[in-house]
Design goal:
It is a single chain. By secondary structure, this protein is an alpha/beta fold. The chain folds into two domains: about 45 residues; about 190 residues, Glycosidases (TIM Barrel). It has seven helices and nine strands, in the order H-E-H-E-E-H-E-H-E-H-E-H-H-E-E-E. It has an eight-stranded mixed barrel. The longest helix is centred in the N-terminal third of the chain and has 46 residues. About 30% of the residues are buried. The model has no long low-confidence stretch (mean pLDDT about 90).
Length: about 250
Amino acid sequence: MATGAAPLGSIGAKLRDWRSRSAHLLRRIGGLLLLLILAAAIALWWASRWAPPRDIYPVQGVTIDASNGEVHWGSIKAAGADFAYISATTGRDGTDTHYAENMRAARDAGISTGSIHRYSLCTLATDQAANFIRHVARRPDALPPVVWLDFDDSCPDRPTRALLLSELATFLAQIEAHMGKRSLIAPGPAFEAEYRVTESIARTAWLRRDFFEPDYGAHPWTMWQATGHLRIAGADGTVGWNVVRPEGETL
């Protein structure tokens, strides 16, 4: 019995040491995870409140759609929005359910407004233009309309660049004849990389990149969506926040 006690005692000591080291390691991992969670929470808090400095970009505005719920436009104006671009139509027959009310209420609050059409690669340009013209009234005080260009998971079509540019030119010609002014084009980074629309469509470019100036267009941006994560009083969820290049074209 005596000869077996030492080995058993040694095993027990090693087991206790292993448990102690494991507990220490778990505490360190737990502390690291807590720090990572805290850092992520701080980053999200910062992102939800950040906007470009007003002394560099004096003209700033908001992008609004139905996901922002019932918008209180007085609060939006108080938050510093000089203008608002409001989602209007999508593709051949999509409409934003809050569009008409948002346009009326924004104008009543003294905010300049413009309309956004989200272009679809799966429907003809003439059908999309008809949808836009049905729902967006011509107004001399309206900001230039915007054609939002992005890939959509619900649309698998990827036309050739030549076909896309031809269709887009048709769409622009029809809505610009209706509105009486030239449009802006707002391609996302992936869309621009695929189709290089800013190389061939001579329109003011509205580019998008969170927190850092975008540089993916063929020419410098005139409008920049600087964040899509901003939370402001008067709108549910997050909004897009945009600035106009001070030395560039004005709206």
